[in-house]
Amino acid sequence: MFPFIVRSIIQKTITLFFISIISFSVIHLAPGEPSQINPMNPRFTPELIKRFRSQFHLDKPLYMQYLIFYKDLFSGKLCSWKDGRPVLRKIWERFLNSLPLFIVGTLLTWTLSFPIGIHSAIKRGGVFDKTATFFAYFFISIPGFFFAYVLIIFVVNTFHVPVIGMKTFGFSSDSLHMIMDRIWHMLIPSVLSATGGIAILSRYVRSQMLEVEAQDYIRTARAKGVPEDEVHYKHALRNALLPFITMFGLVIPGLIGGSVIIESIFSWPGIGRMAYEAILSRDYPVVITLNFISAVLVLIGTFISDLLYMVADPRIRL
Amino acid sequence: MELLSVRDLNVGFFIEEKFALAVRDVSFSVKKGETLCIVGESGCGKTVTSLSILRLIPPNGRIVKGNIHFKEKDLTRLSEEQMRDIRGKEISMIFQEPLTSLNPVFTIKDQIAEAIIVHENVLKQEITDRCITLLKEVGIPEPEKRLYDYPHQLSGGQRQRVMIAIALACNPSLIIADEPTTALDVTVQAQILNLFKELQERYKISLLYITHDLSVVAQIADKVCVMYSGIIVEEGSVENIFYRPAHPYTRGLLDSLPKRAHKKQKLKSIPGVVPDLLSRPKGCPFYPRCSLTKQVCIEKIPNFKELEDGHRVRCHILG
């Protein structure tokens, strides 16, 4: 196991190096640069543009920019071009805002999809399965923004609580009310981000479970006289869960992803919205840093799922 | 004394909204310590017959008629729970594909022990001992080490031995083996067949052996049922079937065996294919491939004719 870990870390560092080059070049391949954001602005004189370009090293050759950029990033000196604040601190603040949404959404998705999918597969063709299938396709096909507005109208009209933003602006009360206020604000966005996930993941679980239930070893278990519950939850489930280790590893990059649509609808000052705004304003440091961090998280995620596979699947010895 | 006796078994499947009988009026019986072979081409209903005995047919299948008597009990009438007590304890089953019949994520020990734990209250240490004894019995070298292996670490033959160990775990009185050697190569097949014979002599276990391979039948069977398209066309002792075959299908099967003496000869075969489940002929199912077909064959399914003691055949023309 130890050699695998060392080998894997070396390989992933090399991968990361190439990712850093690609994500850096991609943004420079895109048209427009920060100095050209608003050419109609009469205050933007050619001298000013030149000053900007030299301040942000845009006048240097690309490989020099690359070196300067990653040197700044790793020494923590990298600042946003938009407001001059350190990039890492900006990202960290937004990350903390997005984190509760991510945690609640992911927990809901993973805890609900599995029971729904497994139960649908075991009682295939039954009322539960048909209902679950209907709702799964319903939530997969309904556009998120539309469903968000329906939910907002429903919750606001029924419970008379404010739901936009992270908390009610200027609201201060005793701690219990504050907590309730925060929870109300979190409810719709996290449920919303979970519904799509539950719909898709529960379908995967169902089909995976059905596939495993048709395997020969399930018939062997029945022929041994093993009770049905054990056949499903011991023999079938252990095998059906294996492919989800990969998917679980890919949840980790979601930490930095956020959701542009949900955060925009609910005015949630999260990381997705920051990324979107940074792209629009050609704020290269923020965009590339986010890109780089999510690449690191993808690599960490795949590394963790490789390790989990070794624990869960005896056929895999790395 | 008959241990297992199947009477007029009819098993059907819902296929594309239609109901088709895969097994029609099948009757046979197995005595204590006896080996009955069911022979036939693929798709003739032999696997369905064997699965019906343990009531393990897929969910779209139904036993529509018939009785399966096992030790004074009618297995078709038992509740699912009573059936579970029989599976693995009184009747064990061994399947065709040793490569996929064992659960890949559990150790050999887990899978053998499970068969014991489901049916008996035994201590942990005792279970390990029994697993080791079972592995020794089926001829696995170094059983103490192999016990903690996973199925993928064993060869096909060894996996089938483990399957046999699982089947033996609770000292069953009947083992149903559904083409247990088909996926193995010939030398391993011979070893496994010898193992079956040995175990059978030692424990007086009855064996219901399903196969398409007549050379296996010759080695292992006491009695033989030849199945074609869901019905038994001929049954009798192994001598009857091999030396005095009556049904044209049985004769065809025997003729298509390769013989070492005539190397240059082209292998014989029966023309045509097994009819599809949904488009079986009304009369004798074999008539489209039979050289002796007459009008009566096309019109109705023949009844059994007794030729000599225990040798019966379903044919209008012969016998």
Note the run of SSEs of chain B as H and E. Answer: EEEHEEHEHHHHHEHEHEEHHHEE
Mean of the pLDDT scores of chain B? 90
CATH topology category name of the largest domain in chain B: Rossmann fold
* CATH homologous superfamily placement of the largest domain in chain B: P-loop containing nucleotide triphosphate hydrolases
CATH fold description of the domain at 91-279 in chain A: MetI-like fold
Describe the protein's architecture and organization.
The complex is a heterodimer of chains A (318) and B (319). Chain A contains 14 helices and no strands. Chain A has helices at 2-29, 46-55, 62-75, 87-122, 127-141, 144-159, 175-213, 216-223, 228-241, 244-249, 254-257, 260-265, 271-280, 284-312. In chain A, 74% of the residues lie in helices and 0% in strands. With 318 residues, chain A is mainly alpha-helical. In chain A, helix 1 (2-29) packs antiparallel against helix 14, helix 4 (87-122) packs antiparallel against helix 5 and helix 7 packs across helix 9 (228-241). The mean pLDDT of chain A is 87. Chain A is globular. Chain A has a domain at 91-279: MetI-like fold, CATH 1.10.3720.10. Helices cover 33% and strands 26% of the residues of chain B. Chain B contains 12 helices and 12 strands. Chain B has helices at 46-53, 80-86, 98-101, 108-119, 124-137, 143-146, 156-168, 186-203, 214-220, 238-243, 248-255, 295-299; strands spanning 2-15, 18-31, 35-39, 61-70, 73-74, 91-94, 174-178, 206-211, 223-228, 231-237, 304-308, 311-314. In chain B, the strands form 2 sheets. Chain B has an 8-stranded mixed beta sheet with strand order 6-7-8-3-9-10-12-11, sandwiched between helices. A 4-stranded antiparallel beta sheet of chain B has the order 2-1-4-5. In chain B, strand 4 (61-70) and strand 5 (73-74) form a beta hairpin. Chain A binds chain B through residues 215-217, 219-228, 235, 238-239, 242, 312-315, and chain B through 54, 56, 80, 84-89, 92-93, 95, 97, 100-107, 114-115, 118-119, 150, 152, 163, 166.
